[in-house]
Design a protein that fits this description.
The complex is a heterotrimer of chains A (421), B (322) and C (304).
Chain A (H helix, E strand, L loop, with lengths): L1 H25 L4 E8 L6 H17 L7 E8 L4 H13 L5 E4 L3 H15 L2 E4 L6 H7 L7 E3 L4 H15 L3 E7 L2 H17 L2 E8 L7 H8 L5 E5 L2 H13 L6 E3 L6 H7 L8 E5 L5 H14 L8 H18 L5 H11 L5 E3 L3 H12 L4 E3 L7 E2 L5 E2 L2 E7 L2 E8 L1 H11 L1
Parallel strand pairs in A: 1-2, 1-3, 3-4, 4-5, 6-7, 6-8, 8-9, 9-10, 11-12
Antiparallel strand pairs in A: 10-15, 13-14, 15-16
Helix pairs in contact in A: 2-12, 3-4, 6-7, 6-15, 9-10, 12-13
Chain B lengths: L1 H30 L7 H16 L14 H23 L4 H21 L1 H4 L13 H4 L3 H27 L1 H11 L1 H6 L4 H27 L10 H13 L4 H25 L2 H25 L18 H6 L1
Helix pairs in contact in B: 1-7, 1-10, 1-11, 1-12, 2-3, 2-4, 2-10, 3-10, 7-8, 8-10, 11-12, 12-13
Chain C lengths: L1 H28 L6 H22 L14 H31 L5 H21 L14 E4 L4 E3 L1 H23 L1 H11 L1 H6 L4 H26 L6 H16 L4 H18 L11 H12 L11
Antiparallel strand pairs in C: 1-2
Classes of the chains: A alpha/beta (421), B mainly alpha (322), C mainly alpha (304).
Chain lengths: 421, 322, 304
């Protein structure tokens, strides 16, 4: 018992020590805080957070926002809604942030939006929440224009997947999707797209997170002997399912969503089996800034940005900071949110997605102009519900990561979606 | 300062809501020796029940009955109780492992059902479109949160009082008698199975109340809210606080929730980003160690159960002085 | 239909191995051990480590055996892993369960096992990372067992099934032919009486952990061989293994072996009726059906 008390005292001392250290570090001349609630304790969540931090560093390099250094206060959501909501509330109330980046899972972003950011009038920008529920909420006016996401709605991803399937001439397809909000959404969308194109869906199989074996599911998917396989999966279950699929003699004709754009997946399945696999993604713009983004990212992290959500996280952070710059010092969340259109204005001065671009944007905004952000996921433009539409790209697996196969402009994507209706 | 108060109100609301669930579990475990390994299922039944009954109409799934809020909350509690009744009926006569495993299974199945049954509860996207009660008058800022905290605290105190009366009643004595020595209790002609079943149901209804309040507070619920980790958190609160002691249960809830959020705050502030991939795992290991450590060195918890003498030969004043 | 049946048997053999150890510990120590499935994870990672070590020490061991993706190194690693996992099970018992038991908290053990499971899972995650690991990245193609009905089976799965059956058969011989087997059964049937007749309960408990851990390790490796290795594999297999023990009847070793196969088959066949999204709930449905039809399981005895 005595020993315990001693340990407790030690721990307490440590905590207070750290706390004083923290407040000392905060007492610098001029910093503006932004909050981030991201699942840093999950393997695919950490790079998303690292990317956001990287953008903050770039912006600080360019002189910060409104003359102040930006400090990103990052909290782990643990993919647990109540932990994420509590973290968001602490950021808003205790750190006084006006901009909140996050979360990744829709199930965490949604309660943060309804119970923290909207009541407090704080702008929330998510890199990766895909649920259509947000569009519904925004349409009802309950998001108060404070909600944005740089993850293109699943509609585009599904439509491009269907387009690729048609172009490859596949007549019958089995669908395997992750059994979460994103997967259920995209699974349903692409099934109806296939139907509109006259492609037969032999099976549509949901894969649950953390399941003992996917053998039965794959057997189910194989049943109708489909010509091709469409997958909206994450690397973990994707690896298991594809290995099972291939070993049971499934076709190597695969169309995959952007979530499988991962080196881990490629290595664990084997490049030799992925030669015919075609991926879809929202596209980088056909400008120098896109390749600059990839080069810059590769130089900084030592590997290409090939994980899910990285480019989205980059853009989410950059746009949020640009909007803060446009709104001026001391602006509240609503003001900042209203400036998002000013920094993604197609009539504005195009700026690149790097430190130099941010510097240029500062000049233009200071002169009363508007800018057109050329992001890592495309010429990002938000609609009234905070959703983005973006051009699309198809890609394949290669030794060096993902290689681009073709580019589909926003007009083509829109026209194709319209033709399906 | 305003920010700190606002945050504390928010924190206390969540902690108080979780306290109610811990109180429910305490009746089951602390007073009756029933191992509920699926707290989250009953919590979820309350949450989903409340939102389905009280929410506005949403396309594509059940619900939107816009019931008067207290009725919706009661409906959620009834759903939790019903589930407990079914599970209890099947397992309560068997050795205790069966209840532990079945309740654990119920939790897995419940989450799975909510994730898949889009027509029932919106599937993986979750349930939204709930208008918080009195929201038109109170707005949704600090005033609302403060009022809601008062509401939750009133329910917490009511639950506490109810349980205190219950465990001092003859029924409460029976529960402890069965927990300590079932055979002896049965030899006295007590129907131990029925009494334990009653305790399981009452406890689950209380856990359902907690779930209903949780969903009301966030105006949203999704399968992500009903993952097994919540069961673990609620249990940790009870074990640390002290099984069998209602005050300990509430203290444990506040303590563990504070530790959970504060450690998240501390780790994210002082651990470098490269380390943060590990903070989640470290936090779970620590909480696991706390639980095992408590069971080894202080199994009675921080606030041990006080054995209640509900009928004593001594005059009442004497008992009060103790 | 036939394919689902065969798949179920193949998955079931893994569940059986896990369930045998669990049912013994549950019966003897009288608590639902929520950390048992983590022994599968320990076994799987242990084999992963020694597989690497053996390959590094002696390169020819990296060769695959026949048509399998199983290498000689991994085959050796399985044996070592069974020993180490058995040892870990004893260690966990010494460190936690025995002490909690000594405090008289039979019921507290259940929750202690909850905590232990949480610790093991996250320590493995810290040590090996959260990502998927594979014993071999080569994909071994399934062979067509028969054309009509069309039947596909992977060689690794057949190996796992045969190996699991052999392990179970050896265990059966031990139970039915040796003094140890008799002691074990005596203790299982009536611990007090067994002690009176001179059987050391502590020794028996130790042996049960070794055997349970060893079988769990084999199950973990077979699972890793036919699927993948990740830190949460124990958590994912926990409910199916529990279901297998309940189907067989808690305490019945043969029941657990059979229960594993039944749960595997039922889960696979269920996909013919239910959408695949519901498969995680299947073990629970099986438990409910058993509790309604025959609450003590196939071979369980009525005991409170």
């Amino acid at each position: 018992m005595k020993k315990q008390a001693k340990h407790a005292a030690l721990a307490l001392g440590l905590v207070t020590g750290l706390a004083t250290y923290g407040s000392a570090a905060m007492a610098q001349d001029c910093t503006t805080k932004v909050g981030a609630v991201l699942p840093t304790s999950v393997d695919w969540g950490k790079p998303i957070a690292a990317t956001a931090q990287y953008v903050v560093d770039l912006v600080n390099e360019a002189g910060g926002v409104g003359g102040c250094k930006i400090e990103m206060v990052l909290r782990d959501s643990q993919v647990d809604p109540k932990v994420g909501v509590d973290a968001a509330k602490a950021l808003v109330d205790l750190d006084g942030v006006q901009v909140l980046l996050g979360a990744v899972s829709s199930g965490v972003s949604m309660p943060i939006l309804t119970s923290v950011t909207v009541p407090a009038g704080v702008m929330q920008m998510s890199c990766c929440s895909s649920s259509t529920a947000f569009t519904g909420l925004a349409k009802e006016g309950k998001a108060k224009g404070l909600w944005f996401r740089t993850f293109a709605t699943s509609g585009v991803q599904a439509a491009v997947g269907a387009m690729v399937t048609r172009d490859q001439g596949y007549k019958s397809v089995a669908i395997m999707y992750k059994n979460d909000d994103w997967g259920q959404d995209i699974g349903k969308l692409i099934a109806s797209d296939f139907e509109a194109l006259g492609i037969k869906v032999t099976a549509s199989v949901a894969l649950n997170d953390g399941q003992a074996s996917y053998r039965a599911e794959v057997t189910e998917a194989l049943k109708g002997q489909p010509e091709a396989l469409y997958m909206a999966l994450y690397p973990k279950e994707g690896t298991a399912a594809v290995r099972e699929w291939l070993s049971l003699g499934g076709s190597q004709n695969m169309i995959v969503a952007n979530s499988l754009k991962s080196d881990e997946f490629r290595d664990n399945v084997g490049l030799q089996y992925l030669g015919k696999a075609i991926g879809t993604d929202t596209a980088s713009p056909r400008s120098n800034s896109a390749s600059a983004f990839v080069d810059q990212y590769t130089a900084h992290f030592g590997k290409a940005p090939s994980g899910p959500g990285l480019a989205n996280s980059y853009d989410a952070t950059m746009i949020a900071l640009l909007a803060m710059e446009a709104a001026g010092k001391g602006a509240d969340g609503a003001k900042i949110a209203s400036m998002v259109s000013k920094v993604t204005d197609s009539a504005g001065t195009p700026i690149t997605a790097d430190a130099a671009g941010f510097k240029k944007a500062k000049e233009v905004l200071a002169g009363g102009g508007s800018v057109y952000y050329q992001g890592a996921t495309g010429n990002v433009r938000f609609d009234a519900n905070g959703d983005v539409s973006a051009p699309a790209v198809t890609w394949g697996f290669s030794d060096a990561g993902a290689k681009e196969l073709s580019f589909i402009s926003l007009t083509d994507v829109d026209a194709f979606i319209a033709s399906l209706k | 300062m305003i920010g700190l108060i606002s945050y504390l109100v928010f924190f206390s609301t969540v902690a108080a809501i979780l306290s109610i669930a811990v109180l429910g579990l305490n009746l089951q475990w602390g007073n009756s020796g029933l191992f509920n390994g699926g707290v989250v299922a009953f919590f979820g039944a309350g949450a989903y029940g409340t939102l389905i009954l009280g929410g506005t109409s949403q396309a594509g799934h059940l619900g939107g009955y816009e019931l008067f809020y207290p009725l919706a909350l009661l409906g959620g509690m009834a759903a939790a109780g019903l589930m407990a009744w079914i599970v209890g009926l099947l397992t309560i006569r068997l050795r205790h492992d069966y209840l532990a495993i079945s309740t654990f299974g119920v939790a897995v199945a419940f989450e799975n059902l909510m994730r898949n049954a889009e027509g029932l509860a919106g599937g993986a996207q979750g349930l939204r479109g709930f208008e918080r009660p009195l929201h038109a008058w109170l707005g949704d800022g600090f005033i609302y949160n403060a009022c809601f905290l008062v509401f939750v605290l009133v329910l917490l105190i009511a639950t506490y009082k109810f349980l205190e009366v219950l465990i001092r009643s003859p029924f409460g004595r029976l529960l402890r008698a069965i927990r300590e020595d079932e055979t002896a209790a049965r030899s006295l002609g007590k129907d131990s199975a029925r009494i334990r079943l009653t305790s399981l149901i009452i406890g689950s209804v209380i856990i359902g109340l907690s779930g209903g309040l949780y969903a009301t507070f966030y105006a949203f619920i999704s399968p992500q809210d009903v993952l097994p980790i919540l069961t673990f958190q609620i249990w940790a609160m009870l074990i640390v606080g002290g099984a069998g002691n209602n005050r300990g249960a509430v203290a444990g809830a506040f303590l563990i929730w504070a530790a959970w959020t504060a450690s998240g705050w501390g780790l994210s502030r002082f651990a470098p980003l490269e380390m943060q991939l590990y903070t989640g795992s470290i936090q779970f290991i620590l909480i696991g160690l706390v639980i095992v450590g408590m069971l080894l060195w202080r199994p009675q918890g921080l606030f041990p159960e006080k054995l209640v003498v509900s009928q004593s030969g001594r005059p009442k004043s004497e008992i009060n002085r103790e | 239909m036939i394919q689902h049946l065969v798949d179920g048997i193949l998955v079931g053999s893994i569940l059986s191995l896990g369930a045998i150890g669990l049912t013994m510990a549950m019966h003897m120590l009288r608590f639902a051990n929520f950390s048992h499935a983590e022994l599968l994870s320990i076994g799987a990672y242990c084999a992963l480590v020694f597989d690497g070590v053996f390959k590094a020490i002696y390169a020819p061991l990296a060769a695959a055996i026949g048509p399998l993706s199983l290498t000689w190194a991994l085959a050796l690693a399985i044996v070592i892993s069974m020993g180490i996992t058995g040892g870990s099970a004893i260690l966990i018992d010494r460190l936690v369960f025995r002490r909690v038991r000594a405090k008289g908290g039979e019921l507290s053990m259940v929750f202690a096992s909850f905590g232990v499971a949480m610790i093991i899972r996250n320590v493995l995650g810290l040590m090996f990372g959260l990502q998927v690991q594979l014993y071999s990245k080569d994909i071994v193609f399934a062979v067509v067992l028969s054309q009509d009905p069309f039947l596909l089976v992977k060689p690794d799965q057949i190996f796992s099934l045969v190996a699991a059956l052999i392990i179970m058969f050896v265990f059966h011989l031990v139970l039915s032919r040796t003094t140890f087997g008799y002691s074990l059964r005596a203790v299982a049937e009536n611990p007090e009486l067994a002690q009176v007749s001179g059987i050391s309960l502590i020794r028996m408990i130790t042996l049960i952990w070794i055997i349970g851990g060893g079988l769990a390790a084999a199950a973990g490796v077979f699972y890793g061989l036919t699927n993948q290795v990740n830190p949460v594999l124990g958590r994912d297999l926990l409910l199916p293994i529990f279901a297998a023990t309940i189907v067989g009847g808690i305490g019945s070793i043969y029941g657990a072996a059979l229960g594993g196969f039944l749960v595997g088959i039922a889960s696979n066949l269920a996909l013919l009726i239910l959408p695949s999204g519901y498969s995680p709930a299947m073990p629970f449905l099986i438990i409910i059906v058993v509790l309604i039809l025959r609450p003590t399981g196939l071979f369980g005895e009525e005991r409170h």
